[in-house]
Design goal:
This protein is of the alpha+beta class and 421 residues long. It contains 4 helices and 24 strands.
Length: 421
C-alpha cells in the first residue's frame, strides 16, 4: 500500500500544479481588441460611362468596277486603215472620238452607185407623171369618166414612186455604211485593252478592244440581313431625290498611302446570294478621276477597297470601353461609395474596338470596371481605381462612419500598385 501511495502522490501533485498554472494564465491573458475595419477589396480599374450620340455603321469590302463597260466592234467589215493614238491600253478617250477607221473606198463607190440609182428613179418618176397627165387629158377629151385605174396610169405612177423611195433608202444605207467606217467612242472613258492593229481585217461584230466610262464607278458590297437593318435599308432599295441612299466612305492603300473617297449607296441587288445568304449593296462614286479623286488619286476600276456604310444616328447612347463588356450583354459597375461590385444586364447596340454602345442598364457617370475579374458576383468587395482621360488614376478608398457603414473618399492621384490591370 505504501508503495502505491509513493507512486500516485507525485502524479497527483503534478496534475494539481499544471491545472492551477493553466487557470492562472487564462485569468491574466490580455483581452483582444475588437475592430470594425472592413476587409480590403480587390483593386480594379474603372472608367466613367459617358453619354453621347452614335452613328451606326457597317463595314464591308468590294472591288471597284466601272458602271459602263463595252466591247468596241464594227457594224460593217473592212480592213483597218488607221487607229487613234489614244486607242491603247490605259488611254483616255473622249465621247465621239474616232478610235478605229476602216478602209472606205468600197463604201464610197456604193454611195456613188446609190446616188445614180436615185437619179434614174427620179427621172422615171417624172416621165411617168407626165404620161399620167397625158392619159388623163386623153380620157377627158374622149369624155370617158369611168376609166380604170390602169387607164389613168395610177399603178405605174405608184410603182415609179416606190422605186424612187427604194433608191433613196439604198443611198441612205450606203451613206450610213460609209459613216460606219469610223468607229467612235460612245462615251468619255479609258481603254482597258486593244485587240486590233492596222492592216487587219475586221468583221462585223468582231472585238476591236474594250473601253469603260470614267463618269461613275460602283462597288458591290455584300452584307448580312442584320447589317442591312442596321443601316436602315429595305431588301428592294433604289435611291431617289426624295430618298437618297446612305453615304459610304471608301478606303484603300494606293502607292503606299491610305486614300479615302466618299460615295453613296444607290440600290440593292435583285436577290440574296443563295451560297453566302448575303445581299449586295451597290455604292457609287461620281467622277472618280476628277472631283471624286483623293488629291489626284482616283478610285480606279479593279481596286479592292474597304467601305464604311453610315446608317442612322442614335441620340443619348451610353458609351463604355470595349473591355468593360462581359460576354454579350453584361457590364460590371464599381460603386466607389460602398466599395462593391454590381453586375448589370445591358442592351448593346453596337461594339467595336473603339467601344461598346448601350441603350439600357447603365447611366452616365457610373464607373464601368475594365479589369478582368474571376468569379465575380453582386456585392463583391472591390477597391475602385478610376482612370482619368489624361492617364492619371484616382483611388477611391471606402471608409466607415460611426455606424460602421462604408463611405468613399477619393484619395487623389495614385500609382495604383497592386491593382488588377
Amino acid at each position: 500500500m505504501s508503495r502505491i501511495l509513493a507512486i500516485a502522490l507525485p502524479i497527483l501533485i503534478l496534475l494539481l500544479l499544471g491545472g492551477g498554472g493553466f487557470a492562472a494564465l487564462q485569468a491574466f491573458k490580455p483581452v483582444p481588441e475588437e475592430t470594425d475595419e472592413v476587409p480590403a477589396g480587390l483593386a480594379v480599374f474603372a472608367e466613367p460611362i459617358i453619354e453621347g450620340r452614335f452613328t451606326l455603321t457597317v463595314d464591308a469590302q468590294g472591288e471597284v468596277a466601272p458602271k459602263r463597260e463595252i466591247i468596241v466592234s464594227p457594224q460593217i467589215g473592212g480592213r483597218v486603215a488607221s487607229l487613234s493614238p489614244d486607242f491603247i491600253d490605259g488611254g483616255f478617250i473622249r465621247e465621239g472620238q474616232v478610235l478605229v477607221r476602216l478602209e472606205s473606198e468600197d463604201y464610197e463607190l456604193a454611195v456613188t452607185r446609190a446616188r445614180s440609182s436615185v437619179a434614174s428613179a427620179e427621172q422615171a418618176l417624172a416621165r411617168e407623171q407626165a404620161e399620167a397627165e397625158l392619159a388623163l387629158q386623153d380620157l377627158e377629151d374622149l369624155g370617158i369618166t369611168d376609166a380604170s385605174p390602169l387607164a389613168r396610169r395610177e399603178p405605174q405612177l405608184a410603182q415609179a414612186r416606190a422605186a424612187l423611195d427604194s433608191a433613196k433608202a439604198q443611198l441612205a444605207e450606203a451613206e450610213l455604211n460609209l459613216r460606219r467606217t469610223a468607229v467612235r467612242a460612245p462615251f468619255t472613258g479609258r481603254v482597258r485593252e486593244r485587240d486590233v492593229d492596222i492592216g487587219q481585217y475586221a468583221s462585223p461584230g468582231q472585238s476591236l478592244g474594250s473601253i469603260f466610262s470614267t463618269d461613275i464607278v460602283e462597288v458591290s458590297l455584300p452584307i448580312s440581313d442584320a447589317e442591312l437593318g442596321r443601316i436602315g435599308l429595305p431588301l428592294a432599295f433604289a435611291a431617289s431625290e426624295e430618298n437618297p441612299g446612305p453615304t459610304v466612305t471608301f478606303t484603300a492603300r494606293v502607292a503606299g498611302q491610305m486614300r479615302e473617297w466618299n460615295g453613296q449607296v444607290t440600290r440593292t441587288a435583285a436577290s440574296i446570294d443563295p451560297r453566302s445568304r448575303q445581299l449586295d449593296v451597290i455604292a457609287e462614286l461620281i467622277d472618280p478621276y476628277g472631283e471624286g479623286a483623293d488629291n489626284g488619286a482616283p478610285m480606279a476600276p479593279g481596286l479592292f477597297v474597304n467601305a464604311s456604310i453610315q446608317g442612322a444616328t442614335l441620340e443619348n447612347v451610353m458609351i463604355v470601353p470595349r473591355s468593360a463588356l462581359r460576354g454579350e450583354n453584361e457590364i460590371y459597375i464599381g460603386n466607389p461609395k460602398e466599395g462593391t461590385l454590381s453586375i448589370r444586364q445591358v442592351d448593346v447596340v453596337y461594339s467595336s474596338d473603339e467601344g461598346a454602345y448601350l441603350t439600357r442598364g447603365v447611366a452616365a457617370g457610373e464607373l464601368a470596371v475594365v479589369s478582368p475579374i474571376q468569379a465575380a458576383f453582386d456585392g463583391m468587395r472591390i477597391k475602385v481605381l478610376e482612370r482619368q482621360p489624361d492617364g492619371s488614376i484616382i483611388s477611391h478608398e471606402p471608409e466607415t462612419d460611426d455606424d460602421g457603414e462604408a463611405v468613399a473618399e477619393a484619395s487623389g492621384e495614385s500609382n495604383a500598385e497592386g491593382a488588377v490591370q
